[in-house]
Amino acid sequence: MAGTAPGARTEELFHRYGRRIYGFCLARLGDRQDAEDALQSTFLNAFRGLERGVLPVCEEAWLFKIAENVCLTRRRSAFRRRRVETPVAIDDTLAAPERESDRIVDLAEAVQGLPARQRRALLLREWQGLGYAEIASELGLSLAAVETLLHRARRSVRAAA
Questions:
Q1: Residue 157 pLDDT class (50, 70, 90 cuts)
Q2: For position 100, what pLDDT does the model report?
Q3: Which runs of consecutive H residues, i.e. helices, occur in 30-128?
Q4: How many CB atoms lie within 10 A of CB 126?
Q5: pLDDT value of residue 77
Q6: Whether CATH 3.40.50.620 fits 6-87
Q7: What is the pTM of this model?
Q8: Whole-angstrom Cα distance, residue 161 to residue 156?
Q9: How far apart are CA 65 and CA 28, in angstroms?
Q10: Is residue 68 classed as helix, strand or coil in its secondary structure?
Q11: Residues 42, 24 contacting (CB under 8 angstroms)
């Protein structure tokens, strides 16, 4: 069987072990449709392995290990989906805090109102994406001075809001 093409070999493995792998997947997943999907994924992964030249010593153990990994992945994915898709009652959500004023902040105006060094440091960081060390080099300042400038600039922009 070692010289057999991967497709034919996978088909032979499916006929020999398919029912047992399906039963294993059904026991692990508890749903017939999920078990059928896991069975298909298992043999697809086996086919890919055979195409890459994998020669399993014990075919049955190899297939069950693939099935175990497929079932584990499917259970993790289902758990994540349920966690993300779980509907939350609207009454349980928090309303956005009310703002003291409804004015819209003009960001450009707030940045223009900053002292020149703060404005330059903030623009280098936020608009050009430079790191603190790069900003320090560009402005000829120490790292601590850049941190202070950025802190003050952000505080001033927040205060303008």
A1: confident
A2: 55
A3: 32-51, 59-85, 107-112, 116-126
A4: 14
A5: 82
A6: no
A7: 0.50
A8: 9
A9: 13
A10: helix
A11: no
| Portions of the chain given CATH number 1.10.10.10 | 107-160
Query: Tell me: the pLDDT tens digits for 16-39?
Result: 999 999 999 999 999 999 999 999
CATH of region 107-160, choose from 3.40.50.261, 2.60.40.10, 3.30.70.420, 1.10.10.10: 1.10.10.10
pLDDT band of 59, cuts 50, 70, 90: very high
Nearest to 118 by CA among 68, 86, 79, 158: 158
Q: Where in the chain is the domain with CATH 1.10.1740.10?
A: 6-87
| pLDDT over threshold 60, residue 91 | no
d(CA 2, CA 42): 20
- The percentage of residues in the chain with a pLDDT greater than 70, rounded to a whole number, is 83
**Angstrom distance (rounded) from CA 47 to CA 23:** 20
Residues 6+ apart with CB under 8 A from 91: none
Whole-number Å distance between alpha carbons of 41 and 81: 19
How far out from the chain centre does Cα 7 lie? 33
Q: Which residue matches tokens 């960081």?
A: 125
